[in-house]
Amino acid sequence: MIDFNKYNSKKVGILGLGITGESIFKSIKDSNAEIYLWDDDISLREKYFNNKEKLTKLEEWPWDNLDYFFPSPGVDLKNKIFLNKLNKNKTKLMSDISLFEAERGNTFPSGTMIAITGTNGKSSTATILCDILKKEGFDTRLAGNIGIPILSLEPGNEKTIYIIEVSSFQIELTENIKPEIAVLLNISEDHLDRHSSIEEYREIKSRIFLNQTRDDFSIIYNNNEHTDFISKKNFLSKKIILSNSGNLDEKKYYSKNLTSIKEILKILEISDFIPSNYFENFKGLNHRLELVCESNGVKFINDSKATNPSATNMAFDLNQNIFWIGGGESKGNDLSKINLLSKNLERVFLVGSSSEELFNLTPKLKNPLIFQNLDSAVRAAYSEAKKSGGGNILLSPGCSSHDQFKSFEERGDIFSDIALSLIGLEKGC
Q1: DSSP-assigned beta bridge partners for residue 325
Q2: Fewer Cβ within 10 Å of end Cβ, the chain: N or C?
Q3: Helix/strand/coil percent split, the chain, to 5
Q4: 114-155 per-position pLDDT tens digit
C-alpha cells in the first residue's frame, strides 16, 4: 500500500501511539526509515515493547534533521514548546490522511473520496451515507475522525468510495487532502483552546475545498455568517450551497443532514433512493442523544458526544423536563452560549473543570449544584427527577471529557453504567 522508497533513509517522528499513530507506524515500519516513537501515556508505550529501540523521548529526537513528523491530531501545533525545534524548512508535517492521499492513485486505486467536516453532525452524516451506499451495492469504506484510521482500511478498487469524517485538527495537518466530494455541514464555536479565533477555525475548515479541481464538488450547508463567508470563496470545484429549513424535532435533527446526503446521491447518479425512508429506521449513534434506559417516567439520555455549546443547545431543544448534567473541559469555548434559560431545563448538575464557570452562568431558579464526579451527579439528578414525578436525565456536557476521562466514549459509557445500575437496583436486578 505504501511506496517505501519515499521513506527509505528518512527520519520519521510519530507522536501519539493511539489507533491513528499505530496505523501510521504499521504502514511504514517495514521501510528503511529511521522511526522515532513517543506517547506520554505509558500504557500505550508498553504496546511497543518489541519496537523498544524506536521509543525515544522527545528531547532525544533529531528535530533539526526530521524529514516527516506525524503528530497526533490532539497535539497543539502552536503551544507545544518542542515544536519550536522543528526545522520548518526541512520537516514535513503529516497526518494519516495525508499519507493516504500521497498514495491514492499511485500504489493502489484512487477510488472516490467523500470528505465530511463541520462542528456537529459529521459522524451521523457519514454513517448514514455509508449505510445507504452499502445498501445500494457500492464498495464503501468509512474512516477518519469517526474512530477508524484511514490507513487501517483495505485499499479497495477504482470504484471504491471512501467516506472520511475529517476534524479541523486533521485538516490542519493534511495539506494535500483532495476529496472528489467535500461537505461542510456547519460551523460554530469549538476548539478555541487550539485555534486562536473562530475566524481561524473556519479558515482551517475551508481548506477541505482548497485542492479540488473543476471536476470535483463542494457542498456547503449555509446556516450562519461563517458558512456564508466560506460559501463566497473562490473555489475551482462545482459549488452546491444548501440552506437551513429552520424546522427542528428529534427526527429533523438527523434528517437536516439528509439534505447534504441527497446532493451526494445525485452526484453519484443515484436517483431512485429516498433517504427519508432509510432514516425512519436509523437508530442514531452511540453517545449522541442515545436513550440508555427508562423507568417510572425517568429517562436517561446519553449525549456525551455533545462537546460544544451548540451541540448541547440542540439537545435542549429536542427534549423537555431536563435534569441536565453538564461541564468538563471548556476547550476555550464561550460557555455563556449554552442556553441555560431554556424553558426545557429544570435542574442543573455540574461536574469537571468548568463547573464553577457554569454555576456562575446558570440562573439561580435552575438550582445549579456542583459535584466532584459523574456518579454523584447522576445519582442526585435521578433523585430529583423522581421527586418531580419524572423527567429526562440528560448528559450533554457542552464540554470536552479530557479533564476527567480518556474520551467522550468513556464518559458516556460510565454514565450509561450508572443509569443501568440505578434502574436495576430499583427493579431488584
Answers
A1: 349, 395
A2: C
A3: 40, 20, 45
A4: 999 998 888 889 998 999 999 889 999 999 988 899 999 888
Amino acid type, 81? I
Classify strands 290-295 and 181-184 as parallel, antiparallel or unpaired. Answer: unpaired
Return the CATH architecture of domain 290-426: Alpha-Beta Complex (3.90)
The answer to whether residue 393 scores a pLDDT higher than 70 is yes
Say how many C-beta atoms besides its own lie within 10 A of residue 162's C-beta: 25
The reply to whether CATH 3.40.50.720 applies to domain 4-94 is yes
CA-to-CA separations, 253 to 78, 205, 258, 279, in angstroms, rounded: 35, 22, 10, 11
Residue tagged 473562490 (cell numbers): 234
> Is residue 240 predicted with pLDDT exceeding 80?
yes
Name the phi and psi angles at 221, rounded to 5: -85, 105
Query: What is the mean predicted confidence (pLDDT) over 23-34?
Result: 91
pTM for the model stands at 0.82
Give me the amino acid identity at 45. Answer: R
Architecture of domain 98-279: 3-Layer(aba) Sandwich (3.40)
DSSP H/E element including 207: none
Range 66-74 average pLDDT? 89
Domain ranges of the chain: 4-94, 98-279, 290-426
Nearest Cα neighbor of 125 from 17, 4, 258 is 258
174 closest CA partner among 77, 90, 36, 270: 77
CA–CA separation, 241 and 80 (whole Å): 38
Give the pLDDT of residue 250. 47
**H-helix or E-strand spanning residue 290:** strand 290-295
Contact indicator for 404, 373 with CB cutoff of 8 Å? yes
| Alpha helices for 286-362 (secondary structure H) | 309-318, 355-361
Query: What is the grid cell recorded at 92?
Result: 514535513
Interval 395-416: pLDDT, tens: 999 999 989 998 999 999 999 9
194 pLDDT band (50/70/90 cuts)?
A: low
pLDDT, residue 244, reads 65
Pick from 191, 254, 258, 259: which is nearest to 399 by CA?
A: 191
**What is the dihedral sign for C-alpha 120, 124, 127, 133?**
negative
How many helices, marked H, and strands, marked E, lie in the chain?
14, 16
Q: What is the average pLDDT across 46-50?
A: 76
Residue burial 129-157, b: 16+ Cβ < 10 Å; e: rest: bbebbeeeebebbbbbbbebbbbebeebe
What is the rounded (10 degree) CA torsion for 412, 278, 184, 240? -170
